[in-house]
Design a protein that fits this description.
317 residues, alpha/beta, six-stranded mixed beta sheet, five-stranded mixed beta sheet, 11 strands, globular
Amino acid sequence: MFRACLTGFVATAAFSVSAQQYPTKSIRLVVPFAAGSTTDIVARILAPGAAQALGQQIIIDNRAGGDGAIAGELVAKAPGDGYTLIMSTNSPHSAVPHLRKKPPYDAVRDFTPITLVGRYTFVLAAHPSVPAKTMGQLFDLARKQPDKLAYASGNTSSIVITAMLNSMAGTKMLHVPYKSEPPAVVDLISGQVQVMVSSYSTIAGHLKGGRLRALATALPNRSPLLPDVPTVAEAGMPKFSIIPWAGLLGPANMPRPVVERLNREFNAQIKRPEVRSQFEQNAFAGEGTTPEFFGDWVRTQLDVWGKIMREAGIQPE
């Protein structure tokens, strides 16, 4: 018994020292979407400064597919030592658990929350060939021509937001899903699909160039980047309430000193003026919170998104 207790004590002490010395090697930051997506951009804005502060390289690992489930499962099964993290969003953490009859992970139990990084701006956009200048006109057109208008989705936020809009408007459009936003936007620009709810940063250049038309934003207030574009509420749906978010998590059971170090360094980056400026250019609002606040946020959003998806008629597969 003495030998077993001594072994356990030594192992615990060694683990504690290791946590205090963290990090001693490069850190992998898994992104659930393809390069060029807003989540990828946010991760790449934060990574250099955080890596310098931590004294180790942060390697971005894009694992697109499965609405973020592929990346989520990868991190959930990784050791909880702080060397594998995920820049997660509401796709893998708020929606996937409700989209799958057998989710590959538990969104709460299998992860350690570190910080809520921020919130996205999503835009309802249409190809210029669509004879609709407003969201109301778009849904009038969709009601007259059920299943004729095709809408693309590049992530779960896009799927859920569009499904909720269709449910509230009493319309039906043809859903064309993509693994991520960039390829969906390519087809939207070419006119192969006519409508899409996309993160602003992915389509900003196309909006400015007139290749796409913004009809509404999924925000509580108008974006300073799109001052002439109404919010969904202003456009006629005041009960619309969806908050797309991004946050940093690791596998379950990460040592508290490691969580605190990551929280401190990433929050410091989020607060830097130059980082906030880059975020704003991509219509992303930086947050930076305690692990406890973010943990509560994940649990609350999981319930909120489940309710919204049930009301929109989205069934698990």
